[in-house]
Inverse folding.
């Protein structure tokens, strides 16, 4: 069994422990492949519209979640144009750029309502909980190296 098959067969907690047990300098290939598998699993749990093929192929809307004053909140939001951070508050060609994303209510391709998502009754294990403004994960203690599932995983259809 090659390393990719071994990684795919692992549960999420097993994969996290396996990657943490590797020495990045000595076992770089396995460490890197385990990181790729973790990232794929993290991205796979983020809700995306599935109402039409265009929404699946070109995700212009996605569900964002996070903690605000200790409370889990989430909403469907549209993407923002490249460079919006640098242009925030400036008026260019008649457009004012903002750092926040507008809330989306409908699919921009087919016009259907986006599904309502609510927090799960129990906060899922191995899910990132950041309550200090974005500096460190309360679940794993990591910051830039957090390996938890994103907070979007804590939502389900109403």
């Amino acid at each position: 069994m090659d390393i990719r098959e071994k990684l795919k067969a692992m549960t999420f907690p097993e994969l996290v422990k396996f990657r943490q047990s590797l020495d990045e300098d000595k076992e770089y290939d396995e460490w890197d492949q385990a990181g790729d598998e973790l990232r794929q699993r993290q991205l796979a749990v983020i809700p995306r519209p599935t109402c039409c093929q265009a929404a699946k192929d070109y995700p212009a809307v996605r569900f964002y979640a996070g903690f605000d004053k200790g409370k889990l909140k989430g909403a469907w939001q549209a993407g923002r144009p490249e460079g919006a951070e640098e242009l925030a508050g400036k008026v260019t060609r008649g457009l004012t750029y903002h750092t926040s994303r507008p809330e989306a209510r409908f699919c921009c391709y087919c016009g259907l309502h986006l599904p309502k998502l609510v927090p799960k009754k129990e906060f899922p294990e191995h899910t990132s909980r950041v309550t200090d403004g974005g500096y460190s994960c309360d679940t794993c203690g990591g910051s830039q190296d957090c390996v938890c599932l994103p907070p979007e995983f804590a939502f389900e259809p109403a």
In short: The chain has two domains: 1-44, 47-157. The mean pLDDT is 82.
